[in-house]
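Journal club side-thread
Mid-discussion, someone asked how the predicted structure for our own chain would compare to the paper's figures. Pasting it here so we can look after the session.
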Amino acid sequence: MKKIRKKSLSLATRAIHGKECYPYTGPVSQPIYQTSTYRFENSQYPIRYARGDSDVYVYTRYHNPTVKNVEEKIALMEGGEEAALFTSGMAAISTAILSVVHAGDEIVSTQALYGGTYRFFRDILPHHNILIKYVPHDQLESLGSLITSKTKLVYLETPTNPTLNIVDVKRAVALVKKIERRLHIHIVTMIDNTFASIYNQDPFTLGVDVIVESATKYLGGHSDLLAGVVIGSKKFLRIVRHNAKYYGGCADPFMAYLLFRSLKTYELRLQRQNENAYTLVRALEKHSKVKRIFYPGIPSHPQHAIAKKQMSGFGGMVTIEVINGTRGAVTLCNNLHIAVNAMSLGSVETLVSIPVYSSHVNMSGEELKQQGVLPGMVRISVGVEGINDIIGDFRQALKKV
């Protein structure tokens, strides 16, 4: 895949200015083209569109200037040729996957996944005659026995939600390429980069073909929008955009405007969240009420060496396992005053959730065990509040556990 060479600009600067050069006059902020359809000066414009001219705007489900501008900025930020925005992370994930696989095809996926993705694999894709096989994050050599001539997609997620396991992306891609050559097939590698986001992990430099991300989370960062994004080659994005017209999960202009606003502070927010998460981990890792702490930025993490190799930062996500199982997890969440008990992540507010009651609900005990999700787990999305306030909040709540 051809990569866009990143300029010597920060992510935030690229997010604000994009590829274009603004004129000396004009709006500082992104205009909102809040319209469902577009006026034609004459019928030559719909004729041009019918003949394939994508520069002619006809209907916002197909394209919109506000949305397009933000898509270009995200593509530049992430080092991809193009990006497509969607109404949610799952809309982006499902559309991207169904742009690769069809009836009779196979997917090989890492075992630990966001619950929504796992349930999409478990409950929806089998009805399309698509088979999913799973490889443990630490047994990538099994790819050789799992991939067949029917495999069209290898799907990765790292760090994993909520266990924060690390998949060696470069090794996974190398193994897939080796198998491709042996079987004379083409396999797309796709990664959910939501937990790390581009500030902490650059999958394209590791050889991945497609990035999917819930832009609701770190890209949005303010708990006030729903969005998803697919980033990849122009060729692949043409297929994705075509399918999106009919699956219908296309982004709306006001959401794109809110996302544009969020990108201006993206780098500042994630830097603070990284720092706060690491400090919180250090404060809690030896707490008597905390059985285990999951964070790739500390040496006790089993894949710390891999994380150091492929990540530029360790992120704002922390998972802890408290004593007394779900009862202990509920008690902790119920007694926090600063951290908010809410089912999301990546926001400026510190958010907590209990995975067995949120992201991984409607999964059997065996499925939870396979994914490493434990009853006493509390997933913490560390925000940008004063770190001493965050630590104090968790310490006082843990006393009640």
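Post-session note: The chain is about 40% helix and 15% strand.
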